[in-house]
Every structure is written in C-alpha cells, then in structure tokens.
Design a protein that fits this description.
alpha/beta; TIM Barrel; 34% helix; 9 helices; eight-stranded parallel β-sheet; single chain; 288 residues
C-alpha cells in the first residue's frame, strides 16, 4: 500500500516511506499502551493506543502487525487482548505468561490471535535459559514460538547452548542486541549466526537505537550488523518499528518512515524486502 503523509503520535516526521511496501507487509514488533489499562504497581510511561497505531499503519503503508506484550504490563495481557480484538485478523500477538499458566488460558489467548510468548534473559522477571525448554513444552501443542529479550549481547552468548536445543521456533528481539561499537566483531554476532543456522531461529530487525552509539536520525552504526544478518539468513529475518518507542525517553522520537526505508539499504532487492516483510511473518504468525 502507498503510505500517506500524516502526523503520528510518538513518530517523528510526517512523510511516508520512499518505497511502497508490498501487500501483506508487516510490522512485526510494536506495543499498545492504553490508559484504560493502567500499568501495574503504579508504573508510568507513554500511552500509544490502537487509534494512534492505525495512523502509523497508514503512514507507512503496512497491512499487518504483531503486538508485543511490554515488560511494564507484567503478566497482564488485558491491553494486548483488547488491542487484538480491535485490530482484527490482520494482527497477531505475543503474550507474557507464567510457566504455570493453565491450558485453558493458553487456548483463550490463541483464539484471540496470540502466537507466541515473550521471555527475558535479563530484566524485572528474567527466565533462566535452562527453563526455556519447559515453556516450549507448554506452547508446543499450539505451534507457538518463544520471543526472547536478551537486553545485552553477552547474555545471548551465555545462553547459546540452551537456546540451540529448543524444540520450538525462537525469535530474538532487536538485532540480537549485538553490542556497538564492536558490531559484527562482537562475540554475540557469531552466536547469532550459529543460532540462525539451526533453521529454527528468527531475528527482528527492530529498535536500532537500543545498541546504536551514533544515534538519530538513522542509527547508521547498526547498518553493518543488519546487512550481515540479512545476507546470512534472509529467510529468517523479521522487521518491526518498536512503536511507540518506549525506550526512547527524549525527543524527537524515531522517524518510522526513515526506519522502514533503512530496510532498502539492508535488503536492496524487492525480492528480499518481500521475504522479510511478507513471507517470513506469514510463516511465523499466520500458519497456526
């Protein structure tokens, strides 16, 4: 779809992307924060509602999306489920659940459009890598995947052996958190290559500002990592905005159209962009 020129909350600029995304193009990583669903324990943060996000879809010319449960909502998926109800079948979700979640709750979430769970190696509620297999067993009957937040590239390196043995699909957030300025020379890059070579691991090309040292507007020091990941395994790359960019605490917020256009540098052919924006998301989120 052709993008539109319009203002979107928490997204700098108004211009659409320079290239027209293919039909079915998917934002594989964004959040919804709705004041109707306050964060637990009085936590504060920005709000980014379904109505706001629909504007971003129009500006970028995207057809589908994947809502990721943010850490600030803990294990409360109420906002996620409400957003899935509102956005409909062109949207899938990644939920946060405890290991002892009931089968009935997993089935309910599946019916709502959830297709994966998000686990953290580091954070407020980290999961030891050795426990990932127990989660994989719980979600196996539904064909779900585990989406993993490493936070630091070194944490990914330490967890490699446990992750490589997982029987389910694993999706790794945000370029695998490959540290800058080392980039492709950091040990986590070799870990990512080996995990991708298992055939069960995907990496999200999202939120370059997390590891970038040079900063906005284009976070260019991440280009080398992104280009190498696409070169190594284009059939297991996913792209996402990370809107409304909760980790960017200063203005301006990232320009999401510019971030989408950056994909043209990392994946210079139309075939590669179609693979990353349409084919791969269909396989991960719409086949079960």
């Amino acid at each position: 779809m052709q993008g539109e020129t319009l203002a979107v909350p928490h997204s700098f600029g108004m211009s659409p992307p320079k290239f027209v995304p293919p039909p079915g193009a998917t934002d594989c990583h964004h959040h919804i924060f709705d004041p109707r669903f306050p964060r637990p324990n009085g936590r504060q943060g920005i709000w980014g509602t379904v109505s706001d996000y629909r504007l971003l879809l129009r500006r970028l010319g995207l057809s589908r999306s994947v809502i990721t449960s943010p850490q600030s909502y803990g294990f409360d998926n109420s906002c996620l489920v409400d957003a899935l109800d509102n956005l409909g079948p062109t949207t899938r979700g990644v939920a946060a659940v405890k290991l002892d979640v009931s089968d009935e709750e997993l089935a309910r979430l599946h019916a709502q459009g959830v297709r994966g769970i998000r686990l953290y190696l580091i954070g407020d509620a980290p999961t030891p890598p050795e426990q990932f297999a127990a989660y994989a067993e719980r979600i196996a009957p539904l064909g779900w995947h585990i989406q993993m937040v490493a936070v630091q590239g070194d944490a990914l390196v330490s967890a490699e052996s446990a992750l490589a043995r997982l029987p389910c699909t694993l999706v790794i957030d945000h370029f695998g958190y490959v540290a800058q300025p080392e980039g492709i020379r950091h040990p986590s890059m070799s870990t990512l290559r080996r995990l991708l070579d298992t055939g069960r691991v995907y990496v999200k090309l999202s939120a370059p500002y997390i590891t970038s040292r040079v900063g906005p507007p284009d976070y260019a020091d991440v280009d080398e990592v992104a280009t190498e990941l696409v070169r190594h395994a284009p059939e297991r790359m996913l792209w996402g905005t990370d809107w409304p960019h909760p980790l960017v605490t200063t203005e301006p917020k990232p320009d999401d159209a510019l971030m989408l256009d950056r994909l043209s540098l990392w994946a210079p052919s139309e075939m590669l962009r179609n693979q990353i924006l349409v084919v791969n998301p269909t396989r991960v989120y719409w086949m079960s």
